[in-house]
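FAQ: What does a multi-protein file look like?

Like this. Sequence, then tokens, then the next protein.
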Amino acid sequence: MSVARTQGWFNLVSGMWPLVHRRSFEGITGPKADVWLLQTVSGLLVAIGWAQIRGAGMGAGTAHARRLGIGTATALFVVDVRYAASGRIRRVYLLDAGFQALWLSAWFRSTPGGRCAGMRGKRASSPRP
């Protein structure tokens, strides 16, 4: 199974969990003051996961799935580490940060030269005056 599909399923399932059974999710991650925010993030993870699953193996779809995967993993990693380390959220989120680091590693290992798809062989161009 590709990194895109695997991470897509991870994002889809982890996004569905609080929507399907909020009590068990909050039992592990702690109570949430803003349920609307929990539902928004969950819905976004479901949408991202679905896009990754559907785009995997479809040329440009794989490149988009990679960009979504790297962007999502980076954002979740930074938030998990910053707020778990400060005690704002439970330390269990450091476990999620570990998963996000693994996704980033998988993406960069699966890309020749360790660069994002779409960047191979391209140089930054400067705007013309």
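And here is the next protein:
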Amino acid sequence: MRIIIALVVALTSSAAFAGTSEGYSMGGSIEKFQPEIDRANATGELFRIKGHCQSNCTLFLGLRNVCVERSATLLFHAGHDRGITSSRITSWICWNSTRSRVR
């Protein structure tokens, strides 16, 4: 019976149902990422950054319960508007979403 209980606990733990950066790997607008960021922070579940993670995918570094797999590749660049014009505001949002010890 103890084995069954341990198995149920393991399968229902936050690690078993961790969110991942998959689906966000190519970046995009902040608006695309904010709902997942809010959800992960609200639940406190583990969130894994894995594989290729570029642009706004790196916003996940600011989550309260995040891990980065050793094999992950993170690509950073300055924020920009919907065109190619560099944006200080977007860059500031990205920079400040990253924990200071990661910076």
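Q: Is there any per-entry metadata?
A: Some entries carry free-text notes. For the entry above: The first helix runs from residue 2 to 12.
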